[in-house]
């Protein structure tokens, strides 16, 4: 019995040492320095060519993984990469490399103040220029697009999926007309009728600068469907990102608020084209989202190689209000498709 116990202990110890060695090796790769002569925290500023000239966009790499490089496309349009900072508490521990990226007009990137550049097709070509500059390809390149970033991710994938390894569509429907109908026919009906009447009155008058508009929307819509905490308790990275919102870009593309859509994207619809997406695709929906979770589930079946992740406690920013479900599902997808 003692001999067996000793043997078992030796095997267990050997296994533990091997695991520690693997973790150590993976960690050394993940945290290895770049080949640049000066280490700058993984920041790379990329010149982007447009019809209005060349402008710089800002990126920052977190970690190193030759097989998984996840480019994050923020929402808004016009917010910043900063609201994704919670990813730092989950992905590095799994050895997953991810890349912050402020789209043109957002955050640390140039803002040309040129409405002609607030265009979906142009942003697709911007992402492709970023991909090339960062040397991302079919062996490692994943995109996670959240909200507006999900529209951009779908549009990019439909044109350039031959350069990609996988796609994550987070909290975005594939049809803006259906998104608008969901807001009007489902979410609006959950509101207090008096509140809804006042919101409709302000919108009819196009009096969007009226502070009463957000006074009504924040407790009655944003705290229920965007991020399910009292707004006074919203995470600092979210507040910091939203405080920097490029209103010109946001209103041009989305309209004056998250309560439906009325900007340039109002008629955008790629639902019938999802069948053309062949790469592994994860679609993330949430129970309380501004986006219809049933539509999101259907999207995962329309693509050729899709998976659906449902966040039963989450809203539009489920990576904050349903973190366990969101990150467990995201990490499992990335590891499985790797």
From TrEMBL:
Gene3D superfamilies hit by this protein: alpha/beta hydrolase
This protein's UniProt keywords: Hydrolase, Signal
Signal peptide: 1-23
UniProt record similarity statement: Belongs to the peptidase S33 family.
Protein's organism: Flavobacterium ammonificans
Residues covered by the AB hydrolase-1 domain: 70-322
NCBIfam families: pro_imino_pep_2
Source taxon at top rank: Bacteria
Protein name as catalogued: Proline iminopeptidase
InterPro entries hit by this protein: AB_hydrolase_1, AB_hydrolase_fold, AB_hydrolase_sf, Peptidase_S33, Pro_imino_pep
Keyword Signal: yes
